[in-house]
Amino acid sequence: MAGFDRNFTDELRARLSLVDVISRRVPLVKKGQNYWGCCPFHNEKTPSFSVNEDKGFYHCFGCGEHGDIISFVMKSENVDFRTAITELAAQAGLKLPDYKPKSHEQIAREESYFEIMENAASIYQKRLFDPDGEIALAYIRGRGFNNDMIKKYRIGYAPKNNIIANKFVNIKQDNLLATGLCRRGDYGMYDFFRDKLMFPIFNAHGKIVAFSGRSLDGSEPKYINTSDTELFHKRKTIFGFNFARDAIHRANRSIVVEGQIDAIQMQCNGFPETVAPLGTALTEDHISMLCKANRNITFCFDGDVAGQKAAARACDIVMPFLRDASDVKFAFVSGGKDPDEVLKTGGQPAMQKIINDATPLVDFLWNLANAGFTVSTPNGRTQAEKFIKQKIEKISDATLRGEYEHEYNSRMFNQWHKWTKNKNNLQKIELPEIDAITKNTLIFITNKYPEIAERYVDFLSSLNISLDGNAPELPMNERDAEKYIVSLKLQKWLETLHIQRKELTAQMLSGVDVNEQISEIDKKIHDANEKLEQLISI
Predict the structure, then answer these.
(1) Residue 9: which of 80, 92, 65 has the closest Cα?
(2) Within its chain, how far is the Cα of 403 from the centroid?
(3) pLDDT value at 351 more than 60
(4) For a disulfide at 201, which of 174, 210, 283, 347, Cβ 3.0-4.6 Å?
C-alpha cells in the first residue's frame, strides 16, 4: 500500500458501491440488509457469499473469504494492490495521485479540530439555556422541539459576542481558523457565528465537523454554514445521515427533504430515515452516499416553484445511479407548507399520505416533459422527445435504459399522437370494426415497434380503438410488422370504397346521376387492389 494513504482509499470506498463492483462478476440478490450470490472464489450451487454495502465488506460463509472493495478486485482479478487501485480509480472517475501517508502532525491537527468542534457545541448548547439565549430557545420550542430533541441534536445558540474566540484564546490560532468557527480581522480573531441558532453538522460516524446557523432577526440569508474545511465539504455531507443510517436500512428507503428542521421533525415523528442537503442543491456525492445505504429514495420537496426546480435537478442527478432494484419517487407538500408544518397540523398520518402518494420517477420525468414543452405541436413534441432521450441516456445499466426507452416510446405514441379525427368525406362513413385478433396484432406492433406506429399514426388513430395494454408475443419482425399495417390500411380503404360505391349505386337506381363518381370509385378500387397484390408478392 506504499504511496497511498487512507485519504485516497477511503475516497474510493465512498465513491464506489461495493454491490455495483461485485455484481459485475457475481449475480447478487438482496435478502434483508445484505446481498447474496454464489462465491466467485470456490465452486458452490447454494449462495453463501454475502455483501454488506453499509459496512463495506463481503464474506463467504462457505470458504471464509472476506474483504472490502479493494481486496475483492485484487483476489477476483488476481492483480496487485496498485493495479486494483488504478482500476477502481478509473471507475470512480478519480485521478490517481501519488498520496503519502498522513503525518503525525496532520493526524494531531485533525484530532485538534474534532476537539474544538465538540467543545464549541457544548458551549453553544449551554448558552441556549442562558438568559441571552432566551429568544433562540423560544423560537426552537415554537417549532415543536422539546428538550429531548434539543439534547439529541445538540442544538445551541451563538451569542452576539465573540464567545468562541475568547474561550479558545489558548488554542493555536491556525487550528481554530481551520475549523471555520473564527476568522481573523483588523482587530484580532472574531466569531463567524454570532446571534444564531446553532445546528451541529455530524459526519457519517457521528463526529461534529461543522455548524449551520439560523438567523433570528429575519435577516438573510436565513441559514449560513461553516465554509468548507479539511473536515467538512458541503457537497459531500448530508444533514442527519448519522442518525438516519440504520433507519434507512430498516425502512428500505431514504427520504430527502429540503432543510434541517424538516429533517429533524421527520426523524422524530415517524420517519427516521429522513435526511437533507446542507444549504446547497443536491450533488452527485449526496446521491452516491444515499445509494450506498439504499437505492430506494423518496424526494419530498415543497410544492412551490423552487421545490419543483429542486425535484427536477434531483431527477437529473439520480439517473446515472438507477439500477433495476432502484425505487425513486417524488413527493410534494402543497399549500405553501413544508413537512414541518404538515406534521404540526396533520400529524404523522398526513405526512404518510404524502409519502405514499409519491410519483414514481418514470412518471415524474414524463410529467416534466409534458409540462415543459407544448406537446400538442410537432415542434414541442420534438423538443420533449429530445429532453427525455437526454435524461435516459444517463442510465448506465443498458438493459434498464432500454426499458425506459421502450416505455417512453409507447407513451409518446399512445398519448401524444393518438387523437380522434372528424372524417371529412361526404358520406361520413364509419370504418368497420376491428376484430380482436387484428387489435392484438396492432397492440403488439405498437409496443414492439413504436417507430413504425409513429409513421402510420394518422391511420391507426382513425381506427378509434385503444392500443394501450399488452398483447401476446408474435413471430413478426420489423419488416413484416410494417407490411401488416400497410396491408390493413389498404384493406380498410377498399372496404370504405365498396361502401361508398354501394351508396352511390343506390342513388343511381333512384334516378340521381352519379355515373362520374362511380367511375372514380371504380378506378380507386382498381388501384388499391393492385397495390395490395404487389404488397403480398413482396
Answers:
(1) 92
(2) 16
(3) yes
(4) 210
Q: How many CA atoms lie within 13 A of 174 on its CB side?
A: 3
Which helix (DSSP H) or strand (DSSP E) does residue 67 occupy? strand 66-67
Give the residue, 118 or 304, on which the prediction is more confident.
Answer: 118
Q: Would you state the pLDDT for residue 397?
A: 84
CA–CA separation, 431 and 439 (whole Å): 14
In three-state secondary structure terms, 334 is: coil
CB 361 within 8 A of CB 330: yes
Which residue has cell 407548507? 337
Torsion of the alpha carbons at 109, 114, 120 and 126, rounded to the nearest 10: -150
Check: CB of residue 401 under 8 Å from CB of residue 324.
no
Give the mean pLDDT of 346-355.
Answer: 94
Which residues on neighbouring strands pair with residue 3, listed in sequence order? Answer: none
Task: Please choose, from the candidates 7, 1, 140, the residue with its C-alpha nearest in 3D space to the C-alpha of residue 71.
Answer: 1
Residue 205 CA from chain centroid, whole number: 25
Task: Write the pLDDT tens digit of every residue in 42-94.
Answer: 888 889 999 988 788 899 988 888 999 999 998 888 788 888 888 888 777 77
Please report where in the chains the cell 362520374 appears, as a residue: 516
**Cell 452516491, located at residue:** 288
Question: What digits encode the pLDDT tens for the residues 155-209?
Answer: 999 999 999 999 988 888 899 999 999 999 888 899 999 999 999 999 988 999 9
What interhelical angle do 305-318 and 284-293 show, nearest 10?
Answer: 70
Three-class SS string for 162-230?
CHHHHHCCCCCHHHHHHCCCEEEECCEEEECCCCEEEEEEECCCCCEEEEEEEECCCCCCCEEECCCCC
Q: Judge whether 362 and 404 are in contact, CB under 8 Å.
A: yes
- Write down the number of H helices and E strands in the chain: 22, 16
pTM over 0.85: no
pLDDT at 195: 95
Identify whether the C-beta of residue 273 lies closer than 8 Å to the C-beta of residue 242: no
Q: Degrees (nearest 5) of the Cα angle 79, 82, 83?
A: 45
